[in-house]
Design brief:
The complex is a heterodimer of chains A (414) and B (290).
Chain A (H helix, E strand, L loop, with lengths): L1 H21 L2 E6 L4 H16 L3 E6 L6 H12 L6 E4 L2 H8 L7 H6 L2 H4 L2 H6 L1 E2 L2 E2 L1 E3 L3 E2 L2 E5 H6 L8 H13 L3 E3 L5 H25 L4 H4 L2 H15 L10 H9 L3 E5 L3 H8 L8 E5 L5 E4 L2 E4 L5 H15 L1 H11 L15 H16 L2 E3 L9 H15 L5 H14 L2
Parallel strand pairs in A: 1-2, 1-3, 9-10, 12-14
Antiparallel strand pairs in A: 3-13, 4-5, 6-13, 7-12, 8-10, 8-11
Helix pairs in contact in A: 2-16, 10-12, 10-18, 12-19, 18-19
Chain B lengths: L1 H34 L16 H8 L1 H32 L6 H9 L6 H12 L5 H7 L16 H26 L3 H9 L4 H9 L4 H16 L3 H6 L11 H11 L3 H31 L1
Helix pairs in contact in B: 1-13, 2-13, 3-7, 3-10, 4-7, 5-7, 7-10, 8-9, 10-13, 12-13
Classes of the chains: A alpha/beta (414), B mainly alpha (290).
Chain lengths: 414, 290
């Protein structure tokens, strides 16, 4: 009896392994493990399986991807990299320089990625001219969210300049409403900072400062003005903001305790989950000034051995940039598709604004990578800037000193 | 054969752990030292570039903050925990009836992980939820206790939580020390009519030198490797006002892909530990040789 069972099992195993050779295989390392994100990944899994692929899920939660990066480092050093890894921004090129990324140009060319992706986003997916990653979505960072009822009660419209914002904030403060809901975590300070910087320096100045790290721009009068505005922002925040999570700050806007929040469009997910309607209960608008700061999630493809894994990689890349996945995933995630030819009928009004603005700024060159979310700079430089921003925001350092510290920190991080 | 075994068996039994320590402690220290001399970013590289990472480290204001915090936190934590622990131990030593219960209560915080301690104190010290809100709710509108969100005071909240966690343990150490002092001497002193505080200050405490030393070593290494408490209580904030060397190293290695920088900070941390432990080991060894 035991013998037959064993024989049956081993026969099955042989069969299974025979099938596996023909099947596309993909092991996917990601950190989308919560609510809407997990649902969004499940969409990709199902689609992959329906095309005959075998998906090995490798979710590593925690630390905003830090834990996943640690796992990735161990796997790469052991010479056994996963097929695809959730990576973004210059980190992709950083891994490419370590010589571990694969070339998926054949898939990209066959599917015409160059035509459907905005150029500045496409550039993040290329490593020295070859395609090495596939974009999933576009999050916009420079959003300002507001409680419609609170604004109406105080006779305020959505601000289109920072002066208007300051005037509105002072009016709200006098009326006993917290003007700005904010969580005192370094990345949130950086998020507000880059929205302010984009508004005050303008798209060209922002690019010089946070993409090119131009020393003159970093120490310019414009940058002093940015820090001056940050000092004002600090006074619009309640005393208890330290360490607060971003979603708790969003809840403050939702229940009318605070009027505004500056946060990427994942905040929209919180509003929608609470049954709020965009345009009626809450308002969304880009922060004062021109330009569009994006945070694009993507999957980088690593060098793998074996035809089944390579086939899996190609299939995965094709599906990720495919119209169906781009639509369904982004409906779940609250972002907008990276490719510009997806029908947006099922998306909400904020997503429509986002998509229109993205196309417009792609055309006039003001589509810019977010520094606070690791799109513009490598970890060491972005971290050095964030250190200065958060130190200034949480103390009484003068703007002139902060600018000096900024230039020194950037030079020291090289 | 048996003779050969007799002489070599102890070495053979010890060899695996000896090799393990050699590789996993000293080997990795050497590896870290090597990497700290390179320009490693995302992955370790092995071309030596000199002391560039140390120069960067000492130029970083955040590292200064971290080291200052370590000295403030370390000094206050060790002193307060020892004084409080000794005081509690002396009070418990008065042969009171419910000693067992009280001892357990004081020792209990030690059973909690630092994460739990940090999270609980985060809520207690939060101005909008905890002590400040409660006292203001009682009608004392002017009451303010916002150390947790004050960049200049936040490091002291970590001292409070760490002392709360560890002073019970120090108490237990001292209590054992107090009990190990010869009853006869104490009785003799009592017969001579020496007041109790004199018995403690002149007889019992001076004879507890080794206990003070072990308590100091235990607390010092707790202070230097403190990481989870900071992460749970303040997350290093406000800003990076409560960063410690361990959290700095973690941020560099795992969030920023700057392994060389992380390695150099790890080496400095190790030197700090050496500065404390080596004199201790030296005095211990010398005492044995005498």
């Amino acid at each position: 009896m035991k013998r037959t069972a064993f024989a049956a099992v081993s026969a099955f195993a042989v069969m299974a392994s025979n099938v596996a050779v023909a099947e596309p295989q993909a092991e996917v390392l990601h950190w989308w493990t919560s609510g809407g994100e997990a649902k969004a990944v499940a969409v990709l899994q199902e689609e992959f399986a329906s095309k005959g692929g075998t998906w090995t899920d490798m979710p590593v939660a925690g630390g905003g991807g830090d834990a996943a990066m640690t796992a990735l480092r161990a796997r790469v050093l052991a010479g056994n990299a996963p097929t695809a890894v959730q990576l973004k921004g210059p980190a992709i090129q950083e891994w490419y320089e370590e010589g571990v990324l694969a070339d998926i140009s054949s898939v990209a060319d066959a599917n015409g990625w160059a035509e459907v992706l905005p150029e500045s986003i496409a550039n993040h997916m290329k490593c020295e001219g070859t395609w090495c990653a596939a974009p999933v979505n576009v999050h916009r960072i420079d959003w300002i969210w507001a409680n419609a009822e609170v604004l109406e009660a105080n006779g305020i419209t959505m601000p289109t300049t920072w002066e208007e914002f300051n005037a509105a904030a002072e009016k709200l403060q006098a009326a006993g409403v917290i003007p700005l809901a904010h969580g005192g975590q370094a990345w949130q300070d950086a998020t507000v900072f880059e929205a302010v910087a984009l508004g005050i320096l303008g798209p060209e100045g922002f690019r010089k400062a946070f993409v090119d790290l131009d020393a003159d721009t970093l120490t310019s009068d414009g940058m002093v003005a940015v820090f001056d505005q940050m000092r004002k922002m600090r006074s619009y925040v309640d005393d208890n903001f330290s360490g607060r999570d971003w979603n708790l700050a969003t809840a403050m806007v939702m229940n009318g305790e605070a009027a505004f929040q500056i946060m990427g469009d994942w905040a929209k997910g919180e509003f929608l989950a609470a049954g709020k309607v965009p345009g009626e209960d809450f308002l969304c608008q880009s922060t004062p000034g021109d330009g569009f700061l994006y945070n694009v999630d993507s999957f980088a493809m690593f060098n793998v051995d074996g035809d089944d894994k390579k086939a899996g990689q190609d299939l995965l890349a094709e599906l990720i940039v495919g119209q169906n996945f781009q639509k369904v995933f982004n409906l779940n995630k609250g972002s907008i598709p990276a490719r510009v030819d997806v029908a947006l009928d099922e998306f909400d009004s904020c997503a429509h604004t986002s998509a229109e603005d993205m196309n417009a700024s792609a055309a006039n060159g003001s589509l810019l990578p977010s520094y606070a979310h690791g799109m513009a700079l490598r970890g060491a430089q972005a971290g050095a800037i964030t250190d200065v921003v958060t130190a200034h925001f949480n103390s009484d350092i003068s703007s002139a000193d902060a600018v000096q510290m900024l230039a020194e920190a950037v030079a020291n991080s090289m | 054969m048996t003779k050969w075994l007799e002489t070599h068996l102890p070495k053979m039994v010890l060899a695996p752990s000896f090799i393990a320590v050699l590789v996993f402690v000293y080997g990795f220290i050497a590896w870290t030292a090597w990497v700290s001399l390179t320009r490693s970013r995302l992955l370790p590289r092995y071309e030596i570039e000199g002391f560039i990472q140390y120069k960067r480290l000492f130029a970083a204001p955040r590292w200064d903050t971290a080291m200052n915090n370590l000295f403030i936190f370390g000094a206050l934590f060790i002193i307060i925990a020892m004084v409080l622990g000794l005081l509690l131990a002396i009070l418990l030593d008065q042969k009171i009836r419910t000693e067992g219960v009280i001892r357990t209560i004081y020792l209990y915080p030690m059973a909690l992980s630092m994460i739990v301690t940090g999270t609980a104190w985060k809520w207690i010290l939060n101005p909008g939820l905890g002590i400040e809100a409660t006292v203001q709710g009682w009608g004392f509108e002017g009451f303010s206790f916002d150390w947790l969100v004050d960049p200049d005071m936040a490091i002291y909240t970590i001292v409070i939580a760490a002392v709360w966690q560890s002073s019970g343990f120090v108490m237990a150490l001292f209590l054992a020390g107090l009990r190990s002092v010869d009853e006869e001497i104490i009785k003799a002193a009592q017969v001579d009519g020496i007041p109790t505080w004199r018995i403690y200050s002149a007889i019992i405490i001076p004879s507890m030198g080794p206990i003070f030393m072990s308590a100091f070593i235990v607390l010092a290494h707790l202070a230097i490797k403190s990481f989870d408490l900071v992460i749970a209580l303040t997350g290093g904030g406000p800003g990076y006002a409560t960063d410690l060397p361990a959290t700095y190293m973690y941020a560099m290695a795992f969030s920023r892909g700057d392994i060389g920088q992380a390695a150099s900070s790890a080496m400095i941390m190790m030197l700090v530990v050496f500065a404390i432990v080596v004199p201790y080991l030296y005095s211990e060894l010398r005492a044995k040789n005498d």
